[in-house]
Task: structure prediction
Amino acid sequence: MNRLIRRLFLGDSTVISGDVVDLEERYRISEQLAYDGIPAVYYDILKHGEGTKVGTLDIRLKRTDYSYYYGDIGYRVKSEYRGHHYAFYACQIAFKEAKEHFGMSELIITCNPDNIPSYKTLAALGGEYLGIEDVPADHEIYRHGDRQKCIFRYTL
Result:
């Protein structure tokens, strides 16, 4: 990124501004309210300077054996906005946020082996590729059809 990421406080909302996209905090889930006991912060991914919502991103603030398979960051880009590297730029902002505001020193991000665009995004972010791991049969994402995950580790 060419310039510093800025945190803006707009009423009850926090916007973290980047060069290409901004992250606008939407809500937080506490450990007590999370169905899996993992607190998280949820953001909208907005086109910088426009405010058009192109996707969502969440940072999970606690890692467990259970959460390992869906990672510390999850993102989704709306189909009509794919191909513009918005997830890449959003993750760059999220890495800085995870380190500076949540005290995290490492992140795990995963994707399905057949999700080539996401795999390319994770590789471009410069993480260590740990390989493909089988999802345990008793895991929620297994019940939803995910059998394997590509695992990347990022040192912040």
Remarks:
- The two ends are 16 Å apart (CA to CA).
- The first strand starts at residue 6 and ends at 10.
- The CA atoms of residues 59 and 101 lie 11 Å apart.
- Confidence is low (pLDDT under 50) at residues 1-10.
